[in-house]
Description:
Blueprint: H1 10-18, H2 23-31, H3 37-43, H4 49-61, E1 65-67, E2 73-75, H5 77-80, H6 83-95, H7 108-118, E3 130-137, E4 147-155, E5 158-162, E6 172-177, H8 178-185, H9 191-197, E7 200-204, H10 206-210, H11 212-215, H12 222-225
Parallel strand pairs: 3-6
Antiparallel strand pairs: 1-2, 3-4, 4-5, 6-7
Amino acid sequence: xxxxxxxxxxxxxxxxxxxxxxxxxxxxxxxxxxxxxxxxxxxxxxxxxxxxxxxxxxxxxxxxxxxxxxxxxxxxxxxxxxxxxxxxxxxxxxxxxxxxxxxxxxxxxxxxxxxxxxxxxxxxxxxxxxxxxxxxxxxxxxxxxxxxxxxxxxxxxxxxxxxxxxxxxxxxxxxxxxxxxxxxxxxxxxxxxxxxxxxxxxxxxxxxxxxxxxxxxxxxxxxxxxxxxxxxxxxxx
Length: 237
């Protein structure tokens, strides 16, 4: 069933695509590294797979995305041209207070899925196996647990998020109140304050603890990798 606005106005025509529920979030996933259907689905855990399939098909039909012979979804030039629009939406929310975290937003599952995008492995650790453990407290009632643990296994410089202990020695454990950790990643709370008041605690190899700012963007830089801020523009020579 056609759901257009019946107007030739370019804003109306763009809204016929971007105004669909979940569409901007699906575009965010495509813009920040997800290509396989299952990977995109992990980035939108509250979206039904049937609706996700429908939205992806709409993007393909609109010429915004292309499905490869291998089954991957990739943005076309028209899709890439939407990147500044999607990023501007996130910047607007941050500037005007719409990014204030509510209880419904405290989702450690999506946070850890996004971890693969913003975790930076320092050069000194790219030829080593490193296990990082994240213990999150203060999960919302919908999680039905008050505490949940995740592991990130780094091998050959590539991070893999694990829901179970991968069986190797843990080099660093980060224990944090989930809201406080998210606020630090979004730049809404200084990391130094969170470490001082104990809402984030670190334990493990001292050298790894000292290098944590190299691993994690703890001063708001994650906004770029989470898809809510554009990367800094290169300085012209």
